Amino acid sequence: MFLKQVKEKIDQVTDELKKVIVGQDEVIKQILVAILCDSNVLLEGYPGLGKTTMIKTLSDLMDLRFSRIQSTPDLMPSDITGTYVLEEEQGKRAFKFHKGPLFANIVLVDEINRATPKTQSALLEAMQERQVTIGNNTFRLEAPFFVLATQNPIEQEGTYPLPEAQTDRFLLKINVRYPSFEEEEKIVDIYTSSQKKIEIRKIFDSSEISIFQDYTREVPIARDLKKKVLKIIDKTRNYPNLIEYGASPRASIGLIMASKAHALIEGRNYVSRKDIENLAYPVLRHRVILNFEAERKGMTKDDAIKEIIKKS
Amino acid sequence: MRIAKSLFTELIISSLIVIFFDSLVTAIFFFSVSAFILSFLDFSLIYGIYPSALFFLISFIKKLRINKIHKLEEKYPELREKLRTSSDYKNKNNSVVMALHSEVVSLMSKVDINAIINQKKIFLKVTGICVLYFLIIMLTAYNFRLPMISEKISNLPVDMGLIKLKAGDYIKDKINYGVENEYLENSSIAELGDEEMNLSLDVYNTEIDISEINEPNKNDFGESFPGEVDPDAQEIYDEKISDEYRKAIKNYFEKIK
User: Fold this and answer.
1) Among A101, A227, B35, B150, which has the minimal tally of Cβ within 10 Å of its Cβ?
2) Nearest Cα residue to B50 out of B64, B34, B39, B66
3) Greatest extent of chain B over all pairs of C-alpha atoms, in Å
4) For the residues A262-286, what does the mean pLDDT come to?
């Protein structure tokens, strides 16, 4: 019965989101997968595709605290983690810690590739450790904690691309595409015809998210499917025709977890082959590096992943 | 968890029984075919037992290796991926897995015996066995066979070192007396047949003890044998024939000239 409840809740989230976001169904599903896996997402898409709106609406639906960080080259680590400020209280002066925007449940980091490597590493440390260290003090970040970072595929001048070792910490890299003609027509109708704010109701809270995350870990995966996952990851390391550098064991863990979350979202109590094949793309596209030959042929990472799935 | 464990245990036991039965029927069918051919060619039916036993073993082991869970999933699409996942997690106990086990147990109640055993094939094999044995009985009753092939094979020489046997005798010896190769390759055994056996037959007592093998007795003619033996031609060849008979013989030879 509880699987039905999970499916109902997820469907309600999707339905509420569709009031604000038109299309992008696959993007929404993959973001929900990352939330259920208690992990982070890298969104890549052109400006104006509704990435910020989507994340903001999602945080409202889940009754989570949302914060947004706009990355610029002059952004300092203390700007995102927080800093000590000298304050006077009752005639006494003392340093008081002011929490930065990282101290939220959902953190949207826009154009992470514009921040300096120092700031990027401070953010990535928070993502990994779920804590922030300032001086001698360590501050734990409140659970649940998700970072959704965005990247602009154009305007690469003056940017600091995330190194592969750092992108590996993101569970999924989601490509946000342009809407279709019909979808864009709907968007135009919604955002040009009415000034009324679209009301969003809260679907579930942080305690329920924690329960759903536990369910995700409990979803079983058959032995042969587990082996399939490992074969795919191993193939990325042993395919010199296309791939220069393959995925790490973090990818194996990520793919299995993402498949389990996807199964739960679909209302299933087992992982299917389709889950693995669908999620291999967002899990692997930021973890593999194509070789010169593949780039010369004009292949994308998704093309390489498709070939690997076929051969494993 | 217990339900799932007992479900898969039952599935394994049922599969084993079905595989055993199927392999046995197939082996019996194979034996029936070989028995039919052997009886037609006038060979002993016992020659068909070894290949049938081997066939049974090979068939049983081959069928044991088939993944029964995958086979069931192919026949019942609603069980696809669920059954194998439930089987892999039969010892686990959490809320999601328990829900999966319950679902699989309820779906398995709809599984028919035809999923494990092919009733049509079994029926055809059993019918084939009955028909073949009926034909064997008919062949035997009417003594209808092709013995020349068996005779030709029987008359083929088989070289066993010092012993040369006909194939038929060799085979019969092997079956009836269980003679080992090593035994026959023992030269002292082979030479035994070359030794002269001293047999004495008693008219009134027919017991013969052939285990007593002695050197042949050498007769000593020293006292009774004459020292010199001179054949006397005149005495030997001079015969007393009357004159009348001599004249008759002489006239006969002159006439035939």
Assistant:
1) A227
2) B34
3) 138
4) 94
CB contact under 8 A, B88 and A222: yes
Q: Write the pLDDT tens digit of every residue in B119-138.
A: 888 889 899 999 988 888 88
Judging contacts by C-beta atoms under 8 Å, the chain B residues touching residue A269 are 96-97, 99-100, 103
Q: β-pairing, A66-70 with A106-110?
A: parallel
Identity of the residue in A2, A218, A222 whose CB atom sits nearest the CB atom of B85: A222
pLDDT confidence of residue A280 = 96
**Contact yes or no for A185/A60 (Cβ under 8 A):** no
Instruction: For residues B257 and B240, give the distance between their C-alpha atoms in angstroms, rounded to a whole number.
Output: 26
Q: Is B182 helix (H, G, I), strand (E, B) or coil?
A: helix
Query: Which residues of chain A does B88 touch, with a Cβ-Cβ cutoff of 8 Å?
Result: 220, 222-223
Q: Would you say residue B178 has pLDDT above 50?
A: no
B157 vs B169: CA distance, rounded Å? 10
| pLDDT tier at B181, thresholds 50, 70, 90 | very low
pLDDT given at position B58: 92
- How would residue A275 be classed by pLDDT, with cut points 50, 70 and 90? very high
Hey, are the CB atoms on B84 and A215 less than 8 Å from each other?
Answer: no
What's the pLDDT at B12?
A: 86
The Cα of A273 is separated from the nearest Cα of chain B by a number of Å equal to 8
Residue B61's H or E segment, with its range, is: helix B49-65
Contact B88/A at CB under 8 A: yes
Nearest C-alpha in A relative to B99: A269
Residues A167, A170: Cα–Cα separation, whole Å: 6
A222 and B94 in contact by Cβ < 8 A? no
pLDDT: is A256 or A56 the higher one?
A: A256
Parallel, antiparallel, or unpaired for β A131-134 and A137-140? antiparallel
* pTM for the predicted model, two decimal places: 0.72
What letters, b where the CB count within 10 A reaches 16 and e where it falls short, cover A144-174?
A: bbbbbbbbbeeeeeebbebeeebbbbbbbbb
Contact B85 A3 (CB under 8 A): no
CA angle A162-A36-A103, nearest 5°? 60
User: What are the residue boundaries of the structural domains of chain B, listed by start?
Assistant: 2-147, 156-216
A222/B84 touch (CB, cutoff 8 Å), yes or no: yes
Q: Residue B140, exposed/middle/buried by CB under 10 A (0-12, 13-18, 19+)? A: exposed
Query: Domains in chain A, start-ordered, CATH in brackets?
Result: 1-218 (3.40.50.300), 219-312 (1.10.8.80)
Residue A61 pLDDT grade (very low, low, confident, very high; cuts 50, 70, 90): confident
The torsion angle over the Cα atoms of residues A101, A102, A107 and A109, rounded to 10 degrees, is 80
pLDDT band, very low/low/confident/very high, at B71 (cuts 50, 70, 90): confident
The token duo for A4 is: 């039905």
> Residue B201: what pLDDT?
53
- Please answer yes or no on whether B96 and A272 come within 8 Å at the CB atom: no
Distance CA A254, CA A41 (A): 12
What residues of A are in contact with residue B84 (Cβ under 8 Å)?
222-224
Q: In this predicted complex, what is the ipTM?
A: 0.81
